[in-house]
Design brief:
There is one protein chain. The termini are far apart. The chain contains two helices and seven strands. Strands 2-1-3-4-5-6-7 form a seven-stranded antiparallel sheet, with helices on one face. By secondary structure, the protein is an alpha+beta fold. The protein is globular and about 35 Å long.
Length: about 120
């Protein structure tokens, strides 16, 4: 069993789990992401759910989502820019907020019901 330390960022993708990934590692995984692949970054050590995830859809469009605590704070956007996705995941992992300004977000919290 692996113990996760508070405020650890865990990156998951098919067959890989990495704690506190570097920006270069995040960018490399996004750069190598194939269609129908995904990358999830999750922050542990908080009482609520904080994560960002990307799925490269079969049509070649990136579907990017993030959750900032409760289900009501779950947002989604789409882009064709691999660079924007890599920057968003890297920025999120460093606790920055400016990465959100590069997208137009749709609130999808109602899809998940009330918590």
């Amino acid at each position: 069993m692996v113990t996760v330390v508070a405020n650890t960022i865990v990156m998951r993708t098919s067959g890989l789990v990495q704690h506190n990934p570097t920006e270069n590692r995040i960018r490399a995984l996004v750069g190598a992401l194939s269609r129908d692949g995904h990358v999830v970054l999750e922050q542990f050590g908080r009482s609520s759910s904080y994560y960002i995830q990307v799925w490269l859809r079969p049509d070649g469009v990136f579907q990017l989502e993030y959750r900032a605590g409760s289900a009501s704070e779950h947002y989604q956007t789409r882009t064709e820019s691999r660079e924007q996705v890599a920057s968003a995941l890297s920025g999120w992992s460093k606790g920055e907020s400016a990465w959100r300004d590069d997208f137009e977000w749709l609130s999808i919290g109602e899809w998940f019901g009330k918590e």
